[in-house]
Amino acid sequence: MSERDLLIERLEKKLAEKERELAELKKMTYSREDFERIKEEIISQIRAEIPDVSQKISELESKIVELRRAVESVINEVAYIKGEIKSLIEKEESAEKVQTEERVVYVPQHQGEREKEDLIDTERKEKPKGEEKDEDGIIICD
Q1: Claim: this prediction has a pTM higher than 0.70
Q2: Residues 127/135, Cβ–Cβ less than 8 Å
């Protein structure tokens, strides 16, 4: 083979290599176009779904507010009932305390002690009007 044939052969190989690279570049360009197209489709779908998502979010927020109010109402009702129960328990305890104070416990006394108490009581009742005894045992006369 001559030099010219070798040169043509090398150039043909380079040309084939360049054509392959060009075909790959075209594929990549085509893939990028497809990628951009798919990307735009996804973005448009997301934008279409956003109003639905925002509406669902607002619905959930309103339900949360409603539930919060319901819970606060229940808590207030429980606190009120607790206070009423507490006041009823206090009333019951005070009533029991009064009942225990009203109970008279009969303790039998010896006959002699009773007579002494009766004498002391009659002496207290029979004091002259002018004489009074204060707490220290001093007799005061008018």
Answers
A1: no
A2: no
